[in-house]
From TrEMBL:
NCBIfam families reported in the protein's UniProt record: mnmE_trmE_thdF, PRK05291.1-3, small_GTP
Domain G intervals: 187-308
Keyword Nucleotide-binding applies: yes
SUPFAM superfamilies reported for this sequence: P-loop containing nucleoside triphosphate hydrolases, TrmE connector domain
One Gene Ontology term of the molecular function aspect: GTP binding
Species, as recorded: Sipha flava (yellow sugarcane aphid)
Subcellular location: Mitochondrion
Alphabetical keyword list: GTP-binding, Nucleotide-binding, tRNA processing
Gene symbol of the encoding locus: LOC112680039
Gene Ontology cellular-component annotations: mitochondrion
Protein name, UniProt field: tRNA modification GTPase GTPBP3, mitochondrial isoform X3
Keyword Ribonucleoprotein: no
A Pfam family it matches: MMR_HSR1
Length: 434
């Protein structure tokens, strides 16, 4: 207790000389902040030094601290782990903090910060609490219905509550992975036949010469990946080798296989077409469908970019645009070399990104991790199996186990799983055991 009088005022910066504990040599002048638990990041007593950033200063201060008993360097992520174990954060907030540190774009930062502030914790905790209460009702019906006259309508209320919860979880999961795509970044594959201008489009989109461009077809043999920030959305542009029907070049064939694999794995595809290919085409949708089929590209989340319109007569371009107005495909026209149509194409591209990723919202948070989606899917399956049991009172033990599984899986998301809580809810809801 003697040393407590030497501690500075909590959460107030104090300028101090930093002294080596054994040699008493001054190591630096720095700021000291004292955070007594539980009002600290970890929930424990914490002290923060703000010192000058030279390597020699940092090294000497760390060496001095190592001379104190029970001091050691923290393990990777240890402060956040201590915060979790002291109930200062749940697992969704821990993941939000990690995502915030790794965020490259404004919208990634926004989503991560909302998660760190508890947007997902509030949602998943409310679902878990609902499951706990309904499970408590089922457990009470099993244990006490014969001796304590627990009414039959308890089970009907449970079914009604779980039907509502199942709808909420189902809606939450039907977001086309938008939160995960925003967090991980949108993978966009640029696909097309050789010499259609795929590399030129890549260079135009990233405003630098990221890919070699020549007049010879087949210049790109391997994948070229360029990360971009497009209006706050993280995008990974992938330029691919041109795809043709036949080739005798083994290297080109391997490149074409990679291109088709990228088209299937991408979140979005930009299908590049030489405007000359469309000359004489009347049914653009039929032609595009066959062209996309050869490229292993599906219509969903596909933006068609008709390039090289500068080498096609104006009347042909007018005809192309008129036909495209009734097309089920989203088609943009332009020229990378002449720098035509790129602004309009970028506007359409941004709309696609917004459709894929959405906009983070605290009131309606979205699933941001594959781990969350997996646990919620398992929980939903168990709830749905529970609701399909026709005679609930006769199969009450099976029904209870299904709710146990659902509660466990939602609890895994936040990191809170406890049998004691079920018992606590039982004894708080029912006057049993008095």
């Amino acid at each position: 207790m003697t040393c407590l009088k030497y501690l500075p005022e909590p959460r107030k910066a104090c300028l101090n000389k930093i002294i080596d504990p054994t040699t008493k040599e001054q190591l630096d002048n720095g700021l000291l902040l004292w955070f007594p638990g539980p009002k600290s990041f970890t929930g424990e007593d914490c002290c923060e030094f703000q010192i000058h950033g030279g390597r020699a200063v940092i090294s000497s201060v760390l060496h001095g601290l190592s001379k104190l008993s029970n001091f050691r360097p923290a393990d990777a992520g240890e402060f956040t782990k201590r915060s979790f174990y002291n109930n200062k954060m749940d697992l969704t907030e821990v993941e939000g903090l990690a995502d915030l540190i790794e965020a490259d774009t404004e919208l990634q930062r926004k989503q991560a910060l909302m998660q760190l502030e508890g947007s997902l914790r509030q949602l998943y905790s409310s679902w878990r609490q609902s499951l706990l209460e309904n499970l408590a009702n089922v457990e009470a019906y099993i244990d006490f219905s014969e001796t304590d006259n627990i009414e039959d309508f308890v089970l009907e209320n449970v079914k009604e509550n779980l039907e509502k919860l199942a709808r909420e979880i189902k809606i939450h999961l039907s977001d086309n992975r938008s939160g995960e795509i925003l967090r991980d970044g949108v993978k966009v594959a640029i696909i097309g036949a050789p010499n259609t201008g795929k590399s030129s489009l890549l260079n135009a989109l990233c405003s630098r010469e990221a890919a070699i461009v020549t007049e010879f077809p087949g210049t790109t043999r391997d994948l070229i990946q360029v990360p971009l920030d497009v209006s706050g959305y993280a995008v990974l542009l992938v330029d691919t080798a041109g795809i043709r029907s036949k080739t005798i070049d083994l290297i080109e064939e391997l490149g074409m296989k990679k291109s088709k694999d990228q088209a299937q794995a991408a979140d979005m595809v930009i299908l590049v077409i030489d405007a000359l290919y469309l000359t004489g085409i009347d049914d653009m949708d039929l032609w595009l469908a066959q062209y996309a089929k050869n490229m292993k590209v599906q219509c969903s989340n596909c933006l068609v970019y008709v390039n090289k319109i500068d080498v096609v007569p104006e009347d042909q371009i007018f005809r192309f645009k008129k036909i495209s107005q009734s097309s089920k495909w989203t088609i943009c026209f332009g020229s990378c070399i002449a720098e035509k149509g790129l602004t309009d194409m970028m506007e359409v591209f941004e709309n696609y990104l917004q459709k894929l990723c959405g906009n983070p919202n605290f009131e309606h948070p979205r699933c941001s991790q594959a781990r969350h989606r997996y646990c919620l899917t398992i929980a939903l399956e168990n709830i749905q199996k529970f609701l399909k049991i026709s005679k609930l009172d006769e199969n009450i033990d099976i029904a209870a186990q299904l709710l146990h599984n659902a509660t466990l899986n939602v609890g895994k998301i936040t990191g809170h799983v406890s049998t004691e809580e079920i018992l606590g809810v039982i004894f708080s809801k029912f006057c049993i055991g008095k």
